[in-house]
Amino acid sequence: MKHLIVYAHPRTDSFNNAILNTAVTALEAEGHEVVVRDLYQLGFQPVLTEADTTSMRAGQTPQDIATEQQYVTDADAITFIYPIWWTGLPAILKGYVDRVFAYGFAYASGAAGIEKLLTGKKGLMISTHGTPKDVYDQVGMTNALKLTSDTGIFDFVGIEPVDHLLFGAIGYLDAAAYQAMLDEVKQTVTTRF
What residue ranges are annotated as transmembrane (predicted)? Predict the structure, then answer.
């Protein structure tokens, strides 16, 4: 299986980076072909501009968008790994979705409504946040995050959401708790794909 990981964290010493390394190692051990698109390392330009939309309407997708769209096209599975900032995606990842999951590539309008153009792919979200998970669960934030990302991004374009791991209290835990999270990442990627 060809697996695309879209990674969005600016620090190489972050827990998100440990999650990324764990996921890549586990997937490759199962024989998957893995491509990582580290948005910060790439210097991905996240702002959807008027020039972008004008070019795409004319059938001339800007090269940086076309490159990322080819990775999405080639993938059987797509995983987003990112921190929750201000109850949402980091700007660089939101911009990736805005620019790459574009109209005419990821979805379109048809006689029956929205046409999902990325069907046949599986999707996994892995998110971290500093608030304890039970607090997010109690206030409804966990369900809201799953709705806006799993349904609002993946399902909207036809990618089947297989799971969403949300890890809370990052920065406040002991080594055993972090290891348990990494074990959950390994188990999830090996059982869902």
Answer: none
Q: Where are the domains of the chain?
A: 2-192
Helices 63-74, 91-100: axis angle to 10 degrees equals: 80
C-alpha to C-alpha distance for 106 and 114, rounded to whole angstroms = 10
Q: Where are the alpha helices (DSSP H) in the chain?
A: 15-29, 39-42, 50-57, 63-74, 91-100, 133-139, 141-146, 156-157, 175-192
- CB atoms under 10 Å from CB of 171, counted, come to 9
Q: What's the rounded Cα separation, in Å, for the pair 107 and 131?
A: 34
Q: What is the pTM of this model?
A: 0.97
- The CATH H-level superfamily of 2-192 is Flavodoxin domain (3.40.50.360)
